[in-house]
Every structure is written in structure tokens, then in C-alpha cells.
Amino acid sequence: MRIDVVTIFPEYLAPLGVSLIGKAAERRVLEIRTHDLRQWTSDVHRTVDDSPYGGGPGMVMKPEPWGDALDAITANPLPESPEVAPTLVVPTPSGRPFTQAKAAELAERSWLIFACGRYEGIDRRAIEAAADRMPVEELSLGDYVLAGGEVAVLVMVEAIGRLLPGVLGNADSARDDSFAAGPMESLLEGPVYTKPAQWRGRGVPEILTSGNHGAIARWRRDQALARTVANRPELLARLDPVTLDKYDRATLAGLGWEVRDGRVERTEAEDFVDKQGS
Ligand code: ADE
Predict the structure, then answer these.
(1) What pTM value is reported for the model?
(2) What is the whole-number distance in angstroms between the Cα of residue 117 and the centre of ligand 1?
(3) With bands split at pLDDT 50, 70 and 90, how would you rate the model's confidence at 171?
(4) What's the pLDDT tens digit per position in 16-40?
(5) Measured from the CA of 139, which atom of ligand 1 is nearest?
(6) Which atom of ligand 1 approaches the CA of 91 most closely?
(7) Does the N-terminal peptide bond of residue 183 adopt cis geometry, omega within 30 degrees of 0?
(8) How many Å separate Cα 229 from the centre of its chain?
């Protein structure tokens, strides 16, 4: 996969050279090119921003450097498949949610360009002009506002990069992730343990040392259900009841949840107590 990142702070992207993603780049699974947006400015001050039309606080990124940057980068297509158009990813708090499913979708593309906005964002015309030529994904990490897209790019490239074939040492480790499609979709991963068996007076759940793989898988599933109920109960509504066996249903019942009208919901008694209390 080729990744181009356009930013006014190229040094912000240095962590992409480290650890999992850095090693993937060394092994040429990934090719990451970072570009300084200011190389596509033409004035002495290398200006990339201006005040917003219509007034208001802050500054807006000018369209010309972005247009020229995208022209220059797309003028060098992939040597192995010159017909492939890149996908432009624009991190912004106004975008659609960046999810594990979106990471998996983007991991299938062979070329991504990330545009790091700063200030109040990028002039809309630059995004629209890009969308005439390539798919554009405006994506948000979450309901909070960062100072710019650089940190979001670090997050997205790591989430996407670890899904590429050959990046993770163990092909199964992505399969059991929280949010991964499959048996753990819409469930958080439960707790994990390693040696020593005793640490500061604390042991390890006995089942994990039993060698009974069926029982361990069941215990992990119960822990995942319990953690999801405790930390992200809104995710339970996304569970397809068809994927819940009788043991899942018994665990959920013990946690105050049940399948009702084809959905996972709080048991009626718990709902009643909640409503009385509020
Ligand atoms: N840029 C600023 N805030 C952001 C967010 N929440 N997600 C993605 N990009 C951003």
C-alpha cells in the first residue's frame, strides 16, 4: 500500500517510522511519503491560510496549495498499477466516524492520500475538486476536536496498517479484536493475563490454566459480554440475536439484559427500576 500524507508539520508524522508501521515500511508492505504542504505555496511567507469568508473566528486553509499538492502527488501514479486512483482521506471532526469497519475497508485500497487540515479546516472547493477525481472520505476519530489532522492520521494509519497482510506477527490477533467483524463484532475484548502466575498476591483466573480450550473460549466470551455491559452498553443493541447461543443469553440475563423483540435490551425489571430511580 502506498500512503501519502500532506501536512504543514511533516515532523509530526515521525512516529510512522517506528514500531509496527515502521517495520512494515522497512519490509515494503507500506510505502509512506510525507509532504510539506508549504512546498506548494508561492509567496515569500509560504502562506497556507486566510480569514474565513463570512467572518468568524480562526483561519481557513487556502485551496490553491491543496489543489497543487494533489495534482503533484497524483501525477506520480503507482508504477505497478498506473490506472488506480488514490482515495483521499480527510480527518475532520465533521466527518463520518472512523470505525474498525472503515479501517478494514481502507486496508483494501492500494493508495491512500491523507490531507491534514489545521485551523478551521480546508476551503471546501479543494475537497470538492478532489472528489471530482477520486473517492474522498472525510472521517472523524470521535466527538472531540484536535488541533489538526496529524494525530488522527497517526491513529488511522496504525489502525489500517495493522490489518495489511504480513504486518501483524500472528494473523489471528486482529481476528479477536474488539469491533472486528465476526464473533467479536460489537463486543469489547475481555481481560488478558500472562506470567507470573502469582503477582503481588494476585493470581490468574484458574480456568485459563486448565487447558480446557472450550471452557476458556466460553469464559472469554462471558468476560467480553460483561465488559461490554459495563463499559459500552449501547453496543449491545448492535448484537444480532442470531449470533447469541443459549450460554450467551444466560450470561446476559445474569447481567440484566435479554433478547426482546429481536433485540438485546435491558430486562424489563431492570428498565423499571431505572425509570423509577430517575
Ligand atoms: N481533526 C480535528 N479533530 C479531529 C477529529 N476528532 N477526528 C479527526 N480529525 C480531526
Answers:
(1) 0.92
(2) 9
(3) low
(4) 999 999 999 999 999 999 999 999 9
(5) 8
(6) 9
(7) no
(8) 22
- Ligand 1 contacts CB of residue 142 (under 6 A): yes
Question: What amino acid positions are annotated as catalytic residues?
Answer: 93, 120, 162, 177
Q: Is 91 in the pocket of ligand 1 (CB under 6 A)?
A: yes
Alpha carbons 91 and 103: distance in angstroms, whole number: 13
d(C-alpha 96, C-alpha 115), whole Å: 15
Cell numbers describing residue 26: 522497512
Digit-coded pLDDT (tens) for 42-97: 999 999 999 999 999 999 999 999 999 999 999 999 899 999 999 999 999 999 99
Residue with cell 450470561: 251
pLDDT at 186: 87
Least Cα distance to 224 among 195, 248, 208 occurs for: 248
Least confident of 32-36, 171-175, 245-249: 171-175
| Centroid of ligand 1 to alpha carbon of 235 (angstroms) | 22
29 in contact with ligand 1, CB cutoff 6 A: no
pLDDT of residue 278: 56
Residue with cell 515532523: 11
Residue 142 CA: nearest ligand 1 atom is 6
Query: Cβ neighbours of residue 202 under 8 Å, at least 6 residues apart?
Result: none
Residue 51: DSSP 8-state: P
